[in-house]
Specification:
Elements: E1 10-13, H1 14-17, E2 18-20, H2 32-35, E3 36-37, E4 46-49, E5 58-62, E6 73-77, E7 87-90, E8 95-96, E9 100-105, H3 111-125, H4 137-140, E10 144-147, H5 157-182
Parallel strand pairs: 4-8
Antiparallel strand pairs: 1-10, 2-9, 3-5, 4-5, 6-7, 6-9
Helix pairs in contact: 3-5
C-alpha cells in the first residue's frame, strides 16, 4: 500500500474538532460485579469502554438503563500499561465504565470518517502518553492532529469518507480474489 501524501494536510487543535462527553452511571447503587458482564447477552447489551487493549476498547457490557450512552464517538483510553492512548471508533451506542472516555466530533460525520479519525488520532497521541503520563482530555485536547484540509482550510471530511470507502471496497475485492484463488476459481 502506498503512503498517503500528507504534504497539504493541516494541523488542527483536537479540542477545536471534538468535545468530551460527560457520560455517567445512572444506577445509584452500581456494583461492577453484579451490574456488568464480560459477555453480551439479553440483559447486558450496552458496550462499556474501559482501559482495554483490543476488542474495540470494550471490556464489559451493562444494562442500557444503568448508563448514559452515545453513538458516533471516539473512545480514548486514558489509562493502562498497554492501552493508554488507544483510540477506537464507537459507531454503536456505548457507555463509559472508567479509565477511558468518549469524545464526539463537532461536525456531523459519517461512520467511515469516524474510522479515519480514530486511526489518525491514535497515531497522533499513542506515543506521547503512557501509564505514567495518562491521556486525560485536558492534555489530549491541546494536541494537534494533522488532517486533510479542504479549500476553505477546514478538515476535509469528504476526502476522509471517500478514502475509507475506497479502502473498504479494495479490501472486499482482495478477499473475493483470495477466495477464488483458494477455491480454485469457483464462486
Amino acid at each position: 500500500m502506498k503512503r498517503i501524501d500528507t504534504s497539504n494536510w493541516k494541523a488542527f487543535v483536537i479540542g477545536d474538532l471534538m468535545d468530551k462527553l460527560d457520560l455517567k452511571v445512572l444506577k445509584e447503587d452500581f456494583d461492577k460485579r453484579i451490574d456488568t458482564s464480560t459477555e453480551k447477552d439479553n440483559e447486558f447489551t450496552l458496550p462499556l469502554i474501559n482501559a482495554k487493549d483490543g476488542n474495540n476498547g470494550i471490556m464489559y457490557y451493562g444494562r442500557e438503563a444503568d448508563f448514559e450512552s452515545e453513538s458516533m464517538c471516539l473512545d480514548i483510553v486514558q489509562n493502562g500499561a498497554i492501552a493508554t492512548g488507544n483510540v477506537y471508533a464507537q459507531i454503536q451506542k456505548t457507555g463509559v465504565l472508567w479509565d477511558a472516555y468518549l469524545v464526539k466530533p463537532k461536525a456531523n460525520i459519517s461512520s467511515h470518517t469516524l474510522l479515519f479519525l480514530s486511526k489518525v488520532l491514535q497515531k497522533t497521541i499513542k506515543e506521547e502518553y503512557s501509564y505514567d503520563n495518562k491521556a486525560i482530555w485536558d492534555k489530549v485536547k491541546k494536541n494537534f492532529i494533522l488532517l486533510p484540509q479542504n479549500e476553505d482550510g477546514q478538515p476535509d471530511w469528504v476526502f476522509m469518507d471517500s478514502f475509507m470507502r475506497n479502502l473498504e471496497t479494495r479490501s472486499k475485492s482482495i478477499v473475493e480474489n483470495l477466495a477464488n484463488i483458494i477455491g480454485g476459481g469457483k464462486s
